[in-house]
């Protein structure tokens, strides 16, 4: 594990030092070492496979999810379009066809 900071754009942990700046090999983002000291830590929300998620992404459910207070279930493979990331334990806010608005944990979805 490197001691370099994670990429501020995609959250990749595989950054490397290139003279006076850091470089991310996954997204190609470059930033100065001085910028690291001034930026606040940004929480990157990742799916079950470790891919970073962003607002507007489409994800797929990887496990049957029981809906609390109902006998309904969100089945494996259900695609959820246009997600919105929020703070909290359930970090994805979305609308699922046939179910309605609900919050999901990012550990139970994968990016499509």
Automatic annotation (TrEMBL):
Residue span, Protein YjdM N-terminal domain: 4-32
InterPro entries on file: YjdM (IPR004624), YjdM_C (IPR013988), YjdM_N (IPR013987)
Signal peptide stretch: none
Hydrolase keyword on record: yes
Keywords noted in UniProt: Hydrolase
Keyword Oxidoreductase: no
MF terms in GO: hydrolase activity
Protein YjdM C-terminal domain span: 45-112
Similarity comment text for this entry: Belongs to the YjdM family.
Record-linked NCBIfam families: phnA
Protein name: Phosphonoacetate hydrolase
Species of the source: Marinospirillum celere
